[in-house]
Amino acid sequence: MSRLFGPMRQVGVVVRDIEAAMRHWVDVCGVGPWYYTDKLALTAFTYGDKRYDDIHVSIALANSGEVQIELIQQRCNTPSMYRDFLAAGREGMQHWSSWPENYEAVYQRALAAGYTVGQEGQSPRGPFVYFKNEGHPGTVIEMAEMTSTRRSIFDQIRQAALGWDGSDPIRRTWPTP
Known about the structure:
The chain is α+β, with helices and mostly antiparallel strands. The chain has helices at residues 18-27, 81-87, 103-112, 148-161; strands at residues 10-14, 34-37, 44-47, 50-51, 57-64, 67-74, 92-98, 117-123, 126-131, 140-144, 170-171.
């Protein structure tokens, strides 16, 4: 567990083809079911201190035990840390995420410890931030506030994975809070 951010709750995987990635995780890794959304609902997004209202990011979520896997495919040219990752010739694990309930306090502690914001946003599920201090590929730290809405959705995704029998592996409707 991170002394600053708390437990790792999610591994974020940036991919070029989310459909192929979901199939791989189902067929090869046996992980699912996947909850997919073509365009993640965001109410605000900033990258490098500049706001962008037009980012189109598809994501899919599934759990393997207590750890959530997030597949991310950006479908536009909006500047982001996802695009930077792919432009550097990478594909795969881009970040890990914690979900603190005391989001603002941890956010301020991270800034005081020297972390800088790479991108952040707001969604109907609550705020999130990606800190730039990567240091090694795949170790960007994302933090998302554990709001009641986020908890409800993530709990349902985790529950669906428990004892999953392989049926209905890709679900194109997210759980509702």
